[in-house]
Amino acid sequence: MKSMSINLIVLTLLTMFALAPVQADPPEFHTVKAELIKPRQGLGNTLEKLKAGEEVRVAYLGGSITAANGWRVKTTKWLQSAFPKAKIHEIHAAIGGTGSDLGAFRLEHDVLQHQPDLVFVEFAVNDGGRQPEAIWESMDGIVRQIWKSNPQTDICFVYTFRVNYENDLRKDENPRAASAMELLADYYGIPSINVALKIAVLEQQGILKFTSETPVAKGVILFSKDGVHPLDEGHEVYTEVIAEAIKQMEKTSQPIDHSSKLKQPFVTGHWTDAKMIPLDASMLSGNWKELPADNVLQKRFGGRMGQIWEADTPGSKLTFRFRGSQAALYDLLGPDGGQVQITVDGKPHEKLTPRFDSYCTYHRISTLRLADGLDSQQIHTVTVEIDAEQPDRKPVAFRLKNPEEELKSAKFQGTRIRVGKIMLRGELVP
Predict the structure, then answer these.
(1) What's the predicted TM-score (pTM) here?
(2) What is the CATH number assigned to the segment(s) 274-429?
């Protein structure tokens, strides 16, 4: 009996070890060869629905290049013309000036709740300044969240262009961000479309100019004014490449259940647990108020941020507790923005954090990082308090015609803080 018990224990332990996920070695970054189209496992689920004439929801997750009425709108129109029996629904999920780090947190609200069949992910430009390891964490989180929500959803990475990327592309190499994303795409079998490579090739052929202060010759495409954001002809090039890619994938793609790919992540620190949580009055002290529905900022940003809360009295606080590793705020920057003191677990940050920067001639969505790399098993307390002093407004002066006078105007006065949601990797604790 004793021998049988021991054998049973051994068998149980062996079974546990056999079932436990085997942790792969961390990936190593290296530059990846630039290719116009890499079909990999294709878009089989989406193409099957398109050819069957079903309703198909296509999401576009990205930055300002995708937010423009350019390749996103044109691609939707092309899909509708290429598959006239299908009914295409476009999900606009792009926000200018944001990368995959915010994308991982806003994915549920902006994309997944709409039940997409296909998600285009475009962050190669806005992630250009991030390290590969950081890109992998957020992009892996995006991929895994999508397939956890629906393993039938197809994903396609799109790599767009900015000036200086041609230096790598002319060597047939992807820039750093696109290379990092390609390694992830290889791992999961996600197709990718490198529209940036097409721009670099056309420029070398003399068919396109990146930018120009003077009119270009007849027959030459002027890509952009700033080297980043395409003009209409630039967006047309992007769309033509995407259309050709989908035609190629139509020949080889087969429907697939992506759930099997979730057995092991690409990186251990993936942001699959990233989420957004609305503010609650119990978290707030001071003169916080909900912006009314007819407020210009609520009308403009509420669709993305939900209910926006505003306070401007020094000493007004937002306090919350959570168990997890990372916290931030989904907030607004603007010309009347104040600055805050952030305190985590009783330790104040060394410097005040302004909600104002050199672009703040207008209001825009941003994120305020509060804490990173915390012990995920511990409960943490975070406080954000409005400071009495305004932040320095001089960084925006070069954008103004008469900065000395304009910076004295009511537009640039205030200590206002506006917050939509808390961004967490973890769980809120009462």
Answers:
(1) 0.90
(2) 2.60.120.260
